[in-house]
Design brief:
Blueprint lengths: L8 E5 L5 H10 L3 E5 L11 E4 L4 H10 L3 H9 L4 E4 L1 H6 E4 L10 E6 L9 E8 L3 E8 L3 E5 L4 E6 L2 E7 L2 E4 L10 H11 L2
Parallel strand pairs: 1-2, 1-3, 3-4, 4-12, 5-6
Antiparallel strand pairs: 6-9, 7-8, 10-11, 11-12
This protein binds glutamine (GLN).
The site of glutamine has 12 residues, from helix 4.
């Protein structure tokens, strides 16, 4: 447990998808989660945000229906640190190649949904991530990052293609760090949050 990050409160979007797994990682790091399920949960105080994997279209629609989209977008625009995985990356992306929906658009990348072919829809690998070292990576019908804009740092690649990026306080990846036995990506995010 790290003294700097213990005691932080992290909002975890909990309308759909793999939010519990992120909460477990945070608990292992002695950090409490604030589950964001409805509009009034956004009034609670949290130092950072996690956008979990799941189904981006469903999450986007629920965010609108629950009146959570605009307030979250404003917080992201004003620099709230965010860790986004898989569907969460799609919600942040400025452009989505193969979908007409657009969501927060705060991260200057282009993604393609479900872009790892049917056979390889789900796979596991291990690659080096900048500042961390080799990390396990589980991909589940993951989006591909097909372009990165100005100020976007590529932190990891698989087959010469970016799978983890950082831009300012936004850390986003195609894979699911919450599904592997490794805390270092969550730890990196918490360090970003505590140094804000
Ligand atoms: N295929 C999902 C989407 O397009 C993302 C998959 C995931 O989050 N595991 O939203």
């Amino acid at each position: 447990v790290c003294e700097l990050t213990a005691g932080l409160q992290i909002g975890v979007l909990a309308v759909q998808g793999a939010f519990l797994e992120h909460e477990k990682k945070l608990a292992e790091l002695d950090v409490s989660s604030v589950e964001l399920r409805e509009r009034k949960d956004l009034d609670r105080s949290f130092d950072g945000l996690i956008l979990p994997g799941g189904e981006s279209t469903v999450q986007g629609q629920l965010l609108q229906e629950l009146d959570m989209f605009e307030p979250l977008r404003e917080q992201l625009q004003s620099g709230l640190p965010v860790l986004a995985t898989c569907a969460g990356l799609i919600l942040l992306a400025e452009q989505i190649e193969n979908d007409d929906h657009r969501y927060f658009r705060t991260l200057p990348v282009t993604v393609a949904r479900n872009a790892y072919g049917r056979q390889l829809g789900s796979f596991h690998t291990e690659q080096t991530m900048d500042g961390i070292g080799p990390v396990p990576m589980t991909f589940i019908r993951a989006p591909q990052i097909t372009e990165t804009g100005e100020g976007v740092q590529v932190l990891a690649q698989v087959n010469d293609q970016a799978v983890a990026v950082r831009s300012g306080n936004q850390l986003a990846m195609s894979f699911h760090p919450e599904l592997d036995h490794d805390l270092r990506i969550h730890q990196l995010f918490l360090e970003m949050v505590s140094s804000r």
